Amino acid sequence: MLLLLGLFKIPMVGFVRPKLLLVDDTTVKVRIRLRRKTRNHLQSMYFGALAVGADIAGGIHAFYFTELSGSKVSFAFKGMHAEFIQRAESDVIFESNEGELVRNAILKSKSTGERVNESINVSAYNLKNEVVAKFQMIVSVKVK
Q1: pLDDT digit of tens for each residue in the chain (144 aa)?
Q2: What is the b/e burial string over 74-96, where b = at least 16 CB atoms within 10 angstroms of the residue's CB?
Q3: Which one of 46, 53, 102, 104 has the fewest CB atoms closer than 10 angstroms to its CB?
Q4: pLDDT digits 0-9 by tens, 73-86
């Protein structure tokens, strides 16, 4: 599904070639490799690649719960706050543990018929398990 999303809907996702490591009811983990296409002039991961990783880790739960519920859900990111703690000089693992929050937003939207906005957190770790960045993403969902 992530490959198809990158090929047809969001080409930037295909460009950085993320790998979905884990998705369950609470957690999403995605890896983006540090390679020529994701590296900047300082030999660390480019800001744009980090943003794509946060986008994917924050958005996969919406896809996941949409598939489980069988409902059609429209979702987008309304905002993003990023804190870059250190340079990402290796592959980066993006992790979100906000599945319950996203599921509840979808359920609330389904019951009210209104768009629901929630703030979810995504952390980015290097291969030494050090935090390299923290993201706060505002996800907006509406069940059609």
Answers
A1: 555 554 456 777 878 889 999 999 999 999 999 999 999 999 999 999 999 999 999 888 888 888 887 778 888 899 999 999 999 999 999 999 999 999 999 999 989 989 999 999 999 999 999 999 999 999 999 988
A2: ebebeeeeeeeeeebbbbbbbbb
A3: 104
A4: 888 899 999 999 99
Q: How many domains does the chain have?
A: 1
Instruction: Locate 26 and state its tokens.
Output: 């609470």
* CATH number of the domain that residue 116 is part of: 3.10.129.10
Q: Are 115 and 140 in contact (CB under 8 A)?
A: yes
Q: Which domain holds residue 13?
A: 2-143
Whether 16 and 52 have beta carbons less than 8 Å apart is answered as yes
The letter for the amino acid at 95 is E
Question: How far apart, in Å, are the Cα atoms of 16 and each of 60, 89, 100, 120, 132?
Answer: 16, 16, 27, 22, 18
